[in-house]
Amino acid sequence: MVTKLMTYHRRPSSTTTASAAPGTVTATSSASDWGLLLIRLTFGLLMAGHGAQKLFGIFGGKGLAETGKGFAALGYQPGKLFAAIGGLSEFLGGLGLALGLFTPLAAAALIGVMVNAMATVTGAHGLWETDGGVEYSVCIAVVALGITATGPGRLAVDRLFRWGTGGWPQAAFALGLGGIAAAITLCL
Prior knowledge:
Layout (H helix, E strand, L loop, with lengths): L1 H4 L25 H26 L6 H11 L5 H21 L3 H20 L12 H16 L17 H20 L1
Helix pairs in contact: 2-3, 2-4, 3-4, 4-5, 5-6, 5-7, 6-7
């Protein structure tokens, strides 16, 4: 029964007329759909956990009060408010990517946080993480943007919506909104 529901073939490209229309649920899934699910779940749940460290003090995190003090030391005033915004962006953005739910918005949240991290913490230390550089933040932003550009796959809630197929408009939305949110935050 399972083999009848799943076929192992490459999904048609977006330029192929044989591909399913946006919002269409098909009974087959490909290795690329399962691969995207693996990436989304791993990346999204790790980012949600990272946000939970800031918000709730779980998984070895310091919680909102202590994280707020760290944000205040970086110049974000009031620190606790910006810690909550950063933590919620990571937590909800991570959950959104894991579920494949509102993928462009979830990616924008993570991109905005990472731009802020690069501008205030890691940017002065160069590229490599071993020197405290931007390497990790760049990877997070690029993975979030890449998932948005390719689309979250058939094994995602977004498959029911027109933005669920990914593409340049969705990627531009995520990058633009993330960049604008980061710029506004940095100006406050």
